């Protein structure tokens, strides 16, 4: 097995976006594809390495690019500046996610009928928004994602199965937001799961984001447990392996 990667340029609204595709070259047939939606930092090594890890599982991973030209922020201040337009205009965010989904489906290494999306922090919100639009995909997985509803998807049926992996002590996502999401997903007819990890804060999968003062604390136990939940979920939603 050798994991191959290549950049993939695609467009949305006149913006050139550059994702990273990863696949196992021992696999000759198209494989289920998984979008990887990055944190507020942009398509950095963390996101690209997750796409490669997806490829090691036998799928095709695609680290998408929301900001354009593969832009990566230099720190919290720039990260916030890059993310802000998408939090203020969720329709724009949803268009970027739809463009990434189409780019993934168009790759020769991908079975276009079997696709999913996963995301971390801001990226978790992004994949939930993709599901909220009624996008036709097998499932979405949010790792310590923001849960705030977009305000433009009420009444839309969610087709994707949904898995939310959440730290109970996340200061950015209070318990009330989790309960509200559960109600939202139920009303949208979604097949949903929420896994809550005790004594766990925000960004629990990312050692580089370990900053207790900011509310982000890496938790290796929750990291391991959540990744296993992802593996089980993908095995469930992808029917031909």
Topology:
Layout: E1 3-12, E2 15-24, E3 31-37, H1 45-56, E4 60-63, H2 76-88, H3 90-105, E5 110-120, H4 122-132, E6 139-143, E7 161-167, H5 175-187, E8 192-197, H6 220-237
Parallel strand pairs: 3-4, 3-5, 5-6, 6-7, 7-8
Antiparallel strand pairs: 1-2, 2-4
Short description:
With 241 residues, this protein is of the alpha/beta class. It has a single domain (3-237), classed as Alpha/Beta hydrolase fold, catalytic domain (Rossmann fold), CATH 3.40.50.1820.
Tell me what you see in this structure:
The model has no long low-confidence stretch (mean pLDDT 97). The chain has six helices and eight strands. The chain starts with a strand and ends with a helix. The chain is an alpha/beta fold. Strands 1-2-4-3-5-6-7-8 form an eight-stranded mixed sheet, sandwiched between helices. The protein has a single domain, classed as 3-Layer(aba) Sandwich (Rossmann fold), CATH 3.40.50.1820. The protein is 34% helix and 25% strand.
């Amino acid at each position: 097995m050798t994991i191959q990667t290549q950049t993939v340029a695609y467009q949305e609204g006149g913006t050139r976006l550059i994702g990273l595709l990863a696949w196992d070259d021992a696999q000759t047939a198209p494989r289920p594809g998984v979008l990887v939606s990055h944190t507020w930092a942009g398509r950095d090594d963390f996101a690209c390495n997750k796409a490669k890890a997806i490829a090691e599982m036998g799928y095709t991973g695609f680290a998408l690019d929301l900001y354009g030209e593969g832009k990566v922020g230099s720190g919290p201040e720039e990260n916030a500046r890059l993310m802000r337009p998408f939090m203020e205009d969720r329709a724009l965010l949803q268009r970027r996610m739809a463009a990434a989904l189409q780019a993934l489906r168009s790759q020769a290494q991908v079975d276009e009928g079997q696709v999913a999306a996963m995301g971390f922090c801001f990226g978790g919100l992004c994949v939930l928004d993709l599901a909220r639009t009624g996008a036709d995909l097998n499932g979405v997985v949010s790792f310590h994602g923001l849960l705030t509803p977009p305000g433009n998807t009420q009444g839309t049926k969610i087709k994707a199965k949904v898995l939310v992996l959440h730290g109970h002590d996340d200061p950015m996502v209070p318990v009330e937001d989790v309960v509200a999401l559960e109600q939202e997903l139920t009303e949208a007819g979604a097949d949903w799961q929420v896994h809550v990890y005790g004594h766990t804060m925000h960004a629990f999968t990312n050692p580089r984001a370990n900053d207790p003062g900011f509310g982000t604390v890496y938790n290796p136990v929750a990291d391991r447990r959540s990744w296993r939940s992802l593996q089980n979920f993908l095995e469930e939603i992808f029917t031909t392996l």
